[in-house]
């Protein structure tokens, strides 16, 4: 048995030791080659991996072979048959089990000395006291909402002194990876120093939706027929007395058959069962190779930051291997008025406060590319009192505030320059927007 | 109740569900090719097993590992597919077992011999593989293997991972791609050259808010043309004139008019062979069909016949109509017009293909109507790759000009190529791995080898001290995440070669994990 105490000096780790114990011409200026780097990785450094899916499995493996031994992984999902083409820590017998638990168990068994701690839950189930403990956070997520929430959480951990300068020990770097088919990206975020997720929210295009009138009256594509059954026919007929579940084969068959009827009626061709599944579940195609590539870039960046052996990626890299192999990296810039990483309130221009209702404002916050909120709750200070304008998350408050939706901003007592606090599931923190009433042409004359 | 003839839901098979996320990309056709393919890996190290992982998971038919070595502590420290219990055992067998375990659909095999032994005693061993992947091989073996695989026409990928640097080089004599899946596929709608049924439809349609934007553009195009019936707006100024004309015809905010204006920039393109396609059409393989010709070349020849005989140089209509705001019946009508023209064109191409099969004394079912339909749909973007032999690259240096001009660029990754060539040569000349024991002494040696290589190639450029030092500091070690990057890339290149979809690299890719960048060179 090798002694755990001196494991960092073992022959097995010769690969990492060469990099960390020998000086090199391309190392970052602050790097001093020594045995202490690997010892730090093995004994002290604590990493959080968010997501144990396609990227997560690869990240755990890569980090374990880069010498990290205290790794936590968090994922609320269970294993599905369609994961097995790329999530290589899972087998058929694992279908239905927790991804985080299975992945941790596999790595702990394959790489002796590495301890992966699983968390089978939502990221939102934990608070600051959990996240504060990590040196670096790596995200392998397929959800923009979850990314934004983690981004907000890590930003909220930053500590500034009275003069506004950052307490370096409170900074937790975020390495974020994403893939879709043969495309992927990796980025390094130093919260409050480099661009955060929210600074470049426009990089994530909103999901494709079809206009309701097309779906209802002038369908042309098989997708339109599927959306019709999903949005309109299911509600109306409610065949199984429950909400539509894209994972239930009975539901899928029902939708497939109704959509096929509708397509036949309109002489639309090309409807397949696979397409029905794809539309209902918003399936993103995925292959093993792209996940391996993007996760490896993320893990390498974790290693660079943890050891300072090389300068880390500054700060955004794209990858595409449809035609040859193509990569590109650039520095994405911080937004000075970022909702998440600056303390400035974001102005919202209101054309006509007399006709714009609260409901209009909420729709704007959901649809605008800079906000992309899900179900925002709004609070404002009106005449010296904090007043909830609308909140859908709590049923009794929703009921009480529902009448406000149809009132105009003026009727609600809001004035030019008014600040509104907005809470949404996309962030653990409340953000502030500031209403700016546009000056009308008539008033300018 | 209303429709008794509903087809029952075609529940997808188990395999289909397992591979669903990738079949959405390369289709069932690609998956079938993958499941029939055999890949050989020469030498087990992290990059090699990561390549296999990336093709075993998606369901390659089978793989064979060739390696005569036994598992060491160092192997276990960076290879996920060699565990503590395999210490001292056959490396080929141990890796095969843990890789096979990833996917029970895949058959794993191994050979406990060195590649050098096989080349000597059983060189045709390699004939049965669709692709051979190798790493950690000596310079002389690279050359011998390259010669053998070139002769057998088996695609070969040579890859390596040293410290924070990794590369892959593809050797393929000829690779033909029908479905290249370009990101920026040009629309080919023939608005500027409508086929008769389209012309008739466009001319007889009333332009209202209910018709697809194509009808809108066509009507105002006619107006803009005046007496010159073949004129097409190409310049910015002309497009602006047409745009104004369309705007002037709007009464309210008709969506199809808005779409027509947006479409003006790209809707008069396509239909004619590109330069790349012309080269394929003029290729010797297209003009000299034999019994041994690939079906791809018979199809290309048939396409060429179609262009010369039937269509006055216009490509077969692809028959794909993008979605556009319109009433259902208007849109479906238009879609059917495109589809039926596509079918007509394809059937002419099919006839040419059948004629060629007949005159070559080949069976008529070698090329089906659906093969031809697919080929015609993709005709504008079919692709051909003719590679070079690694043996020639090593013995003659095929691209001194590329090397010289790349070295002039700041931060070029070409230096990494040279340092790795020097790394190979060092091993031939000195036996060991540079930097394994003496970084300083080996740095000087690497530098002098690199300079010697450059002068052999006629390139006058002093080699960098820093890179020579960097490669020696690695002492030949492999960093797992760097191997995982190139392993993932190579796995996809293997899939491209097997499925005959997407364009592979041509022919060398270099990755620097130091700067997270890549470059591709044709060597």
TrEMBL record, chain A:
The active site is at residue 213. Its EC number is 6.2.1.64. Keywords: ATP-binding, Ligase, Nucleotide-binding, Ubl conjugation pathway. Pathway: Protein modification; protein neddylation. Residues 350-438 form the E2 binding domain. It is an enzyme of class 6 (ligase). One of its GO terms (cellular component) is cytoplasm. SMART domains: E2_bind. One of its GO terms (biological process) is protein neddylation. Coiled coil: none annotated. It comes from the Eukaryota. It catalyses: ATP + [NEDD8 protein] + [E1 NEDD8-activating enzyme]-L-cysteine = AMP + diphosphate + [E1 NEDD8-activating enzyme]-S-[NEDD8 protein]-yl-L-cysteine. GO terms for molecular function: ATP binding; NEDD8 activating enzyme activity. Catalytic subunit of the dimeric E1 enzyme, which activates NEDD8. Belongs to the ubiquitin-activating E1 family. UBA3 subfamily. This is NEDD8-activating enzyme E1 catalytic subunit. It comes from Pseudolycoriella hygida. The gene is Uba3.
Automatic annotation (TrEMBL), chain B:
CDD domains: APPBP1_RUB. Residues 19-517 form the THIF-type NAD/FAD binding fold domain. Keywords: Ubl conjugation pathway. One of its GO terms (molecular function) is NEDD8 activating enzyme activity. It comes from the Eukaryota. Transmembrane segments: none annotated. GO terms for cellular component: cytoplasm. GO terms for biological process: protein neddylation. Pathway: Protein modification; protein neddylation. InterPro entries: APP-BP1 (IPR030667), ThiF/MoeB/HesA (IPR045886), ThiF_NAD_FAD-bd (IPR000594), Ubiquitin-activating_enz (IPR035985). The keyword Cell inner membrane does not apply. Belongs to the ubiquitin-activating E1 family. ULA1 subfamily. This is NEDD8-activating enzyme E1 regulatory subunit. The gene is APP-BP1.
């Amino acid at each position: 048995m090798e002694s755990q105490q001196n494991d960092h000096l073992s022959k097995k780790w010769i690969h990492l030791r060469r990099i960390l114990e020998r000086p090199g011409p391309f190392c970052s200026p602050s790097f001093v080659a020594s045995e202490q780097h690997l010892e730090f990785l093995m004994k002290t450094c604590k990493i959080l991996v968010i997501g144990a899916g396609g990227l997560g499995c690869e990240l755990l493996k890569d980090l374990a072979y880069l010498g990290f031994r205290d790794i936590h992984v968090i994922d609320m999902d269970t294993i599905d048959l369609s994961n097995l083409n790329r999530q290589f820590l899972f087998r058929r017998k694992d279908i239905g089990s927790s991804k985080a638990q299975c992945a941790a168990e596999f790595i702990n068994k394959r790489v002796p000395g590495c301890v992966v701690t699983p968390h089978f839950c939502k990221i939102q189930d934990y608070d600051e006291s959990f996240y504060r403990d990590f040196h670096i956070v790596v995200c392998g997520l397929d959800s923009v909402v979850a990314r934004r929430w983690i981004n907000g959480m890590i930003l909220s951990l930053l500590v500034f002194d009275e003069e506004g300068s950052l307490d370096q020990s409170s900074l937790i770097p975020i390495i974020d990876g994403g893939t879709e088919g043969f495309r992927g990206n990796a980025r390094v975020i130093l919260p409050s120093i480099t661009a955060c997720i929210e600074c470049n929210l426009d990089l994530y295009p909103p999901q494709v939706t079809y206009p309701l009138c097309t779906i209802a009256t002038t369908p042309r594509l098989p997708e339109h027929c599927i959306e019709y059954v999903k949005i309109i026919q299911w509600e109306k007929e409610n065949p199984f007395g429950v909400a539509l579940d894209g994972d239930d084969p009975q539901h899928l068959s029902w939708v497939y058959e109704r959509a096929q009827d509708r397509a036949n009626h309109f002489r639309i061709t090309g409807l397949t069962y696979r397409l029905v599944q794809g539309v209902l579940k918003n399936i993103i195609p995925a292959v093993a190779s792209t996940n391996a590539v993007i996760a490896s870039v993320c893990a390498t960046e974790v290693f660079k930051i943890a050891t300072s052996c090389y300068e880390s990626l500054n700060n955004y890299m794209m990858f595409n291997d449809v035609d040859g192999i193509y990569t590109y990296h650039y520095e994405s810039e911080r937004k000075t008025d970022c909702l998440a990483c600056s303390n400035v309130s974001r102005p919202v221009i209101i054309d006509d406060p007399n006709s714009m209702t609260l409901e209009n404002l909420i729709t704007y916050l959901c649809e605008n590319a800079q906000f992309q909120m899900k179900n925002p709750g709004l609070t404002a200070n009106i005449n010296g009192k904090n007043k909830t304008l609308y909140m859908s998350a709590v049923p009794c408050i929703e009921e009480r505030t529902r009448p406000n939706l149809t009132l105009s901003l003026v009727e609600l007592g809001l004035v030019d320059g008014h600040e509104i606090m907005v809470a949404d599931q996309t962030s653990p923190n409340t953000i502030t927007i500031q209403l700016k009433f546009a000056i009308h042409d008539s008033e300018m004359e | 109740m209303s429709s008794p003839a509903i087809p029952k839901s075609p529940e997808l098979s188990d395999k289909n569900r397992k591979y669903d996320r990738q079949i959405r990309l390369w289709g069932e056709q690609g998956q079938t090719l993958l499941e029939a393919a055999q890949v050989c890996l020469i030498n087990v190290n992290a990059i090699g097993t990561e390549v296999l992982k990336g093709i075993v998971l998606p369901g390659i038919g089978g793989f064979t590992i060739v390696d005569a070595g036994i598992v060491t502590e160092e192997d276990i420290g960076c290879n996920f597919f060699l565990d503590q219990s395999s210490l001292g055992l056959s490396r080929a067998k141990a890796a095969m077992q843990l890789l096979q375990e990833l996917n029970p659909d895949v058959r794993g095999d191994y050979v406990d011999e060195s590649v050098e032994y096989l080349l000597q005693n059983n060189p045709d061993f390699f004939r049965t593989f669709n692709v051979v992947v190798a790493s950690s091989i000596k310079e002389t073996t690279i050359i011998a293997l390259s010669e053998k695989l070139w002769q057998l026409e088996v695609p070969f990928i040579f890859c390596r991972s040293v410290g924070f640097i990794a590369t892959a080089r593809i050797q393929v004599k000829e690779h033909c791609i029908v479905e290249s899946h370009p990101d920026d596929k040009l629309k080919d709608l023939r608005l500027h050259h409508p086929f008769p049924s389209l012309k008739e439809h466009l001319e007889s349609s009333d332009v209202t808010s209910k018709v697809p934007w194509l009808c809108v553009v066509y009507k105002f195009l006619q107006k803009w043309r005046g007496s010159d019936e073949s004129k097409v707006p190409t310049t910015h100024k002309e497009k602006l004139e047409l745009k104004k004309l369309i705007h002037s015809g709007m009464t309210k905010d008709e969506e199809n008019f808005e779409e027509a204006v947006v479409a003006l920039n790209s809707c008069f393109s396509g239909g004619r062979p590109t330069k790349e396609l012309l080269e394929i059409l003029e290729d010797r393989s297209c003009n000299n069909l034999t019994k041994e010709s690939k079906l791809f070349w018979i199809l290309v020849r048939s396409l060429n016949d179609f262009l010369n005989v039937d269509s006055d140089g216009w490509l077969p209509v692809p028959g794909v109509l993008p979605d556009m705001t319109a009433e259902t019946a208007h849109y479906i009508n238009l879609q059917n017009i495109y589809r039926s023209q596509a079918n007509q064109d394809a059937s002419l191409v099919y006839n040419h293909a059948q004629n060629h099969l007949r005159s070559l004394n080949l069976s008529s079912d070698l090329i089906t109507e659906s093969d031809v339909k697919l080929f015609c749909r993709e005709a504008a973007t079919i692709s051909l790759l003719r590679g070079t032999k690694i043996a020639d690259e090593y013995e003659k240096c095929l691209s001194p000009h590329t090397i010289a001009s790349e070295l002039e660029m700041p931060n070029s990754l070409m230096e990494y190529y040279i340092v790795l060539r020097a790394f190979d040569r060092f091993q031939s000349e000195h036996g060991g791995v540079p930097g394994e024991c003496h970084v300083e002494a080996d740095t000087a040696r690497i530098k002098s080898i690199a300079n010697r290589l450059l002068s052999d190639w006629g390139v006058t450029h002093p080699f960098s001290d820093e890179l020579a030092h960097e490669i020696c500091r690695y002492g030949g070690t492999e960093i797992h995440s760097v191997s995982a990057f190139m392993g993932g890339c190579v796995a996809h290149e293997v899939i491209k070669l097997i499925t005959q979809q997407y364009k592979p690299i041509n022919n060398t890719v270099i990755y620097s994990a130091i700067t997270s960048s890549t470059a591709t060179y044709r060597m």
